[in-house]
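Researcher: I need the complex structure. Ligand is pyridoxal-5'-phosphate. Inputs:
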Amino acid sequence: MIAQNLNIIEEKISETCLKTGRKRHEIKLIVVSKTQSIEVLKTAIELGIRDFGENKAQELKEKAEKISEKINWHFIGHLQTNKVKYIINFTEYIHSIDSIKIADEVNKRAESIKKVQKILLEVNTSGENTKFGLTNELELLKTAEYCAKKKNLSLVGLMTMAPFTREEKLIRKSFIRLRELKEFLNSSGLELTELSMGMSNDYQIAIEEGATMLRIGTALFGQRNN
Ligand SMILES: *Cc1c(COP(=O)(O)O)cnc(C)c1O
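Model: Output:
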């Protein structure tokens, strides 16, 4: 089932790339493996997947320690300062930096293991107060400039979650907003390249609006139980 679903996802990504004149290699498919067992991850690895997204620090650590293949681990959940220590040895990217406080802790932990940690800033583009992320443009600029100066952080882009709705217009608006914020930051002297946006229900819209990283779980593995 996972193999078939992966084919369907790859077909849809290719189709959307063709339609919008984008190139497949510009887009990273991150498989969101939260709550999935090691066996399920191994199946995905056999199918060639090497980018996995997790949203709980201890879960990422446990899985990373059990899997011997070279995996690019992406942390995509809300991160608390006391949990950074669990993931810092493993994470290729942390997508969910949403304050100077958490940026400082990641920088400090990265420095202690002589690593430059690639990060993205999470932006709340939907206005939903159940979602995390920076909301205010100036606060985003301030946080981005702060991170850009830190020696052990490499700020590469922005991440968002679209609102939970069937209304395509609202979803698209969220993604456009993220793209515009990236352009705004770059016009202020930053050099961001990545837009982490698009999940199982909206990744084709995200590609149309410039996504470079898709985070897909359910469309590959089926509905999660918890
Ligand atoms: C769970 C999760 C996803 C994947 O969602 P699906 O709808 O299962 O594709 C993507 N991003 C974040 C931040 C998540 O927590």
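Model: Summary of the prediction. The longest strand covers residues 91-97.
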